[in-house]
Amino acid sequence: MDYLLLVVGLAGLLLGGDTLVRGASGLARALGISPLIVGLSVVAFGTSAPELVVNVLAALQGETDLAFGNVVGSNLANLGLVLGVTALIAPVALEGQIVRREIPLLLLGSAMLLVFSTDSLLRGDVSKLDLADGLGLLLLFSIFFYVTAVDVLRGQEEDPLLGGIGAVPRFLRKTLPSKDLILLSVGGVLLYLGGLLTISAGTGLAESWGIPSAVIGLFVLAVGTSMPELVTSVMAAYRREPDLAIGNLVGSNLFNSLFVLPISAIVADIGIPKGGLADLVFSLALTALLIPIALLGRGNISRFWGAGLLVLYVGYLALRLLAV
């Protein structure tokens, strides 16, 4: 039964990813909003929905190893597997805004997450993410949400402070295209349901094979919840929407680190499992690597660098599996 659910889930992810990309790119064109902004916000949140659902459920059930491994493993999969495969299909352009602001913000969030997870080293206490850590990360997420919203407004209205109290941004005065809204909604629902089916089936198969829960969280759940990002980014690359692809990945990692995991920590303390600090350090290193790649590749992640990211990801997975 798990094999059938896995096939159905993957089909839902494939169809949902294609539908979501078509709806998001159409909506961006209709409203005059940059596809990068759409990728960083609407698409990124939609593809992060499976991580949010899985983490909240895991925290409520006391499966904190699964919750931690799901988010950190998803971030690793996004930067290594998803970005690597996407770049192999078509070179991914790293716009100046991504390099100047979103990637440094993701670096800051990743560094804060690493510091918050080192209680055993800094205070001699058990390493965990608690309520205070979750609220601190959510404050950083509010900054990301604010600057993204300001980007949308500035791109649509040149007057300061929206041109006065009575002014309304032009994109809000436009009639929203119903077709694109329907595609966006249907794509999001299919991704959500497909992700849940894939996770459920993958977890059932892993448990039947006798894989430990920590490994399930870091690899099976993480890769399963990253399937929407993989499908969406691949479809975006195939449709020559590179802004949507990179915006989706960076935005998804920002949502995972600064929204999904903090919400889970508010629900219940998230313990840092064995090898968790190494996972956070490697995630931080992969994020930092994007900056020299952008400089050396003149603003592009070529197929060569995509293959390199993929090799790094697979190599790290092999090391973590050998250390279990």
Topology:
Layout: H1 2-31, H2 35-60, H3 64-89, E1 92-93, H4 96-116, H5 119-122, E2 128-129, H6 131-156, H7 170-173, H8 178-208, H9 213-238, H10 242-267, E3 270-271, H11 276-296, E4 300-301, H12 303-323
Antiparallel strand pairs: 1-4, 2-3
Helix pairs in contact: 1-2, 1-8, 1-9, 2-3, 2-8, 2-9, 2-10, 3-9, 3-10, 3-11, 3-12, 4-6, 4-10, 4-11, 6-10, 8-9, 9-10
Describe the model.
The chain is mostly helical and 324 residues long. It contains 12 helices and 4 strands. It has helices at 2-31, 35-60, 64-89, 96-116, 119-122, 131-156, 170-173, 178-208, 213-238, 242-267, 276-296, 303-323; strands at residues 92-93, 128-129, 270-271, 300-301. The strands form 2 sheets. The protein has a two-stranded antiparallel sheet with strand order 1-4. Strands 2-3 form a two-stranded antiparallel ribbon. Helix 3 (64-89) runs antiparallel to helix 12, helix 4 (96-116) packs antiparallel against helix 6 (131-156) and helix 9 (213-238) packs antiparallel against helix 10 (242-267).
Shape category: globular
Main β-sheet description? 2 strands, antiparallel
Name the quaternary structure.
single chain
Which strands sit side by side, in order, in the main sheet? 1-4
Helix content: over 70%
Report the end-to-end length measured between terminal Cα atoms.
28 Å
Structural class: mainly alpha
Give me the count of strands.
4
- Count every helix, treating DSSP H or I runs of 4 or more residues as helices: 12
What is the helix/strand order?
Answer: HHHEHHEHHHHHEHEH
Low-confidence stretches: 156-173
Beta-strand residue percentage = under 5%
Radius of gyration: 19 Å
Average pLDDT works out at 78
